[in-house]
Amino acid sequence: MAAFHSSFEYVLEWWKQLVGESEGKGGKGIFPSSAHYTTDLHSLGQLVQEGTRNLFETFLLVEKSSKVIEVEKDNCDRDGLGYLEGKSLDFINEKAYKGSANAHLEGGVPNLAITLKERSAHNLGQLFYFFERAVAMTGYLSGVNPFDQPGVEFYKRNMFRLLNKPSQ
């Protein structure tokens, strides 16, 4: 999953844990990964664009940001970004999303977007509920119990043994 707003950093981390622990059993499940675009767009975008075709891309977007930040004027245009003067970061991120989503789709990577109207407690609650329900359903459809994590117990048992944790 990729997001263009840094405020979604921990949502992406939560999503990776949810999907990995719920679906990754019995040789099944997708590999959940996250990207913080535009930061990761250059490095991971290359892999998405021309790498092995074993993935799909989900974008997490927000229509209305709580804070508007605009690119300031630089009379010298030292960084060559003068053409962005007066444009908001939301506007720039929207174009980055559209450009990368279209390029990746043309490159053979299916993608979809989940768009929140605004970042609010209500909308985040709906998003969490959506993912929890979707992951439970895909787990059952895949023939795995999405509510246990037997693989996690293996590494924990080994780690505690190596740390000489007393038995309880």
TrEMBL record:
Molecular function (Gene Ontology), one example: carbohydrate derivative binding
- Pfam families tied to this protein: PGI
Q: Which GO terms describe its cellular component?
A: cytosol
Keyword field contains Ribonucleoprotein:
no
The molecule here is called Uncharacterized protein
Keywords, sorted A to Z: Gluconeogenesis, Glycolysis, Isomerase
| PANTHER family the record matches | GLUCOSE-6-PHOSPHATE ISOMERASE (PTHR11469)
Quote the CDD domains the UniProt record gives.
SIS_PGI_2
Q: Is Isomerase one of the keywords?
A: yes
- Report the InterPro entries cross-referenced here: G6P_Isomerase (IPR001672), SIS_dom_sf (IPR046348), SIS_PGI_2 (IPR035482)
What species is given as this protein's source?
marine metagenome
GO annotation, biological process = gluconeogenesis; glucose 6-phosphate metabolic process; glycolytic process
